[in-house]
Design goal:
The chain is an alpha+beta fold and 614 residues long. The chain is 32% helix and 20% strand. Helix 6 packs across helix 9 and helix 11 crosses helix 13. GO terms for molecular function: lyase activity.
């Protein structure tokens, strides 16, 4: 009965309209009556692009090398060859039922592995890489681009095989093709082959936008952008098949941004990586609109996009471009147009800031890479620099003091959380990530990693009785979403920046945390109780030579340039440094030390970390 009640509350939190949309979508596919199952399109024939204009001065070299080797998720390099589009790129295993219509193919198959590996090459990073090389005058790159596109179309006839299963995947291909047109300087040209390619994809996307809306995530924004970009491209070329793709895309994109992006800029997916995907999507829509001379988006749309850019700027470490590994992270990067794009968020923030605020986020031409390759003039002016931000629209506090950043996650869930990371603290001093989030590893990871990475154990917070903060109801769904109780307070008093927040979970356990950041010090006060057996406070530490000392209720920890103390009083039952795992890149995880402080009774722990100033 308790689990039934949890499911009922969670379905209500997801929204009855969204639940109904998903149910109707699935019922339609099962019955064979869904409109998307009646869509037809011819196999496009090349050439798709016929010429390349020289790149703008200052464009950096291509970000990923698809000439000498195949690149997966931005970091996995395998021997170069023309991809087998419906097979696992490493093992060569063909996805089950790969010759069947996409709705007859399983979403997950343990024997075949992670479907994202099959999708990765069909996300067409290589389209941008070849277009960049062609714009830089490299011989043969336009022919290679056309040949690969033709091969993809032959091996993925509409709408057969795993690469047609997801409307967002189809949308990414449209956005990559349009991005290549911008890189090549030909957005006002549309060959018959490219037109057929766009129409083939838009016909897959349009009938399932209700399902995309029901997800309340980047499926809706990506599919809306593809419809807008592809539809306006067809309209500009006078293609009679343009229909209402562009109008639907514009309307849906404005509606999705109004719903999914909060006033302080938080995106519905509570993820730094997917926040970048949002920014890159909006930047394409705006750059494309300008290139084709389309009507401007609404002022409300531009305002939310600018807020989303400010949110990202407040979370990004400006010296390295890296950011806290918070939320789901599959390495998604819509514009891999520069070297090191996987962990450098600055060019995306720079582009969004320029397009929606008309200013610069960072000095230095390197950070203009996305703008230059999309042929948008960089903004002028002096950057203001990142500041603290309390994003109450989604439960993020970015505390900044000098070179230090403390990101605090607190429970303000308007949308479903993907990780049990409430009251997690990420600490950065310059590019040094001292207290860390675990990341994602894989959406189809085997046990025990499928539960480890999204779970409470993988975050810098308190875990009660060995369970997650919220019960798991599915692969990507937690139930009984937590809410702030009592006073939730953000303050910047000149002597540092602070946040106070807390919660009670569904089993009666409670945790209240006060975080105070100064230029050379982080202080965290944790009060907790209501558990049955034990509470474990974890601090996931940067890899270093840590020395641990325990005396009575006092713990001391030291590493080069850093000293930490933890006062636990009589509640302390034990402490140790154990090996944990972190995943900064998709499908990869590495060891790191984790300080575990076990408490046997309700109490208070005062943690203080002090670092040497540079």
């Amino acid at each position: 009965m308790t689990r039934f009640a949890t499911r009922a509350r969670t379905l209500f939190a997801l929204g009855p309209a969204n639940v109904l949309r998903v149910a109707l979508y699935r019922a339609g596919l099962r019955s064979g009556l869904h409109p998307v199952q009646r869509v037809r399109a011819p196999v496009p024939q090349g050439p798709f692009f016929t010429r390349a204009h020289p790149a703008l001065p200052g464009c950096p070299p291509p970000g990923r090398n698809w000439v000498e080797h195949t690149v997966l998720f931005g970091h996995l390099e395998i021997a170069h060859r023309l991809p087998q589009w419906r097979s696992h790129p490493v093992t060569g295993v063909r996805w089950p039922r790969a010759d069947r219509p996409w709705w007859e193919i399983p979403d997950f198959d343990p024997a075949a592995g992670d479907v994202k590996l099959v999708w990765e090459c069909s996300r067409m990073d290589w389209v941008l890489a070849f277009a960049q090389r062609a714009a830089l005058g490299e011989a043969g790159m336009l022919d290679r681009l056309n040949a690969w596109l033709a091969d993809w179309c032959r091996d993925n006839p509409p709408y057969t095989g795993p690469n047609w299963k997801c409307g967002q995947e189809a949308s990414i291909r449209v956005m990559r093709l349009a991005g290549a047109a911008l890189v090549l300087g030909t957005p006002n040209e549309l060959s018959p082959g490219a037109a057929d390619f766009v129409v083939m994809h838009l016909r897959r996307i349009l009938p399932t936008v209700a399902y995309a809306r029901a997800q309340d995530n980047n499926h809706g924004t990506s599919e809306a952008c593809a419809l807008f970009v592809g539809g306006t491209w067809l309209e500009a070329a006078g293609d009679a098949r343009a229909g209402d793709f562009a109008r639907t895309g514009r309307r849906l994109l404005e509606e999705r941004v109004a719903r999914l992006v909060g006033e302080q800029g938080t995106f519905s997916q509570y993820s730094v990586t997917y926040h970048r995907v949002l920014l890159d999507t909006l930047c394409l829509a705006e750059a494309w609109r300008r290139a084709l001379g389309c009507a401007a988006f609404s002022p409300a749309f531009a305002q939310r996009a600018a807020s989303a850019a400010r949110w990202a700027a407040s979370a990004v470490e400006p010296g390295s471009g890296d950011a806290p590994n918070v939320g789901a992270n599959d390495g998604a990067c819509l514009w891999p147009l520069f070297d090191g794009c996987d962990r450098d968020f600055r060019p995306s923030v720079q582009a969004a800031t320029a397009l929606f605020s008309g200013t610069r986020a960072y000095d230095g031409s390197r950070h203009d890479a996305v703008l230059l390759w999309l042929r948008v003039p960089p903004a002028q002016g002096t950057p203001a620099g990142p500041g603290s931000l309390d994003a109450r629209d989604g439960g993020f506090a970015m505390l900044r003091s000098g070179a230090a950043l403390a990101l605090v996650r607190y429970p303000r869930f308007r949308f479903r959380p993907s990780q049990a990371d409430v009251l997690h603290v990420d600490l950065w001093v310059g590019a040094r990530n001292i207290l860390r989030d675990a990341g994602t590893c894989s959406y189809s990871a085997p046990a025990p990693w499928d539960r480890y990475f999204p779970g409470t154990e993988s975050h810098n917070t308190v875990q009660f009785d060995g369970r997650d903060q919220m019960p798991r109801l599915g692969r990507f769904l937690f139930g009984d979403w937590l809410r702030c109780d009592g006073k939730c307070e953000f303050s910047d008093d000149g002597d540092g920046v602070s946040l106070i927040a807390g919660y009670h979970d569904a089993k009666g356990a409670w945790h209240r945390r006060r975080v105070h950041l100064q230029e050379d010090k982080l202080q965290v006060e944790d009060d907790f109780g209501g558990f049955e057996r034990k509470a474990v406070l974890r601090w996931r530490l940067e890899p270093s030579a840590w020395r641990l000392d325990r005396r009575d209720g006092h713990i001391a920890l030291e590493a080069p340039g850093l000293r930490a103390t933890f006062d636990c009083g009589e509640a302390l039952a034990g402490c140790r440094i154990v090996e944990g795992r972190e995943s900064r890149l998709y499908l990869q995880h590495t060891p790191l030390p984790v300080l575990e402080i076990e408490l046997g009774r309700p109490g208070t722990v005062n943690s203080c970390l002090i670092w040497d100033r540079a």
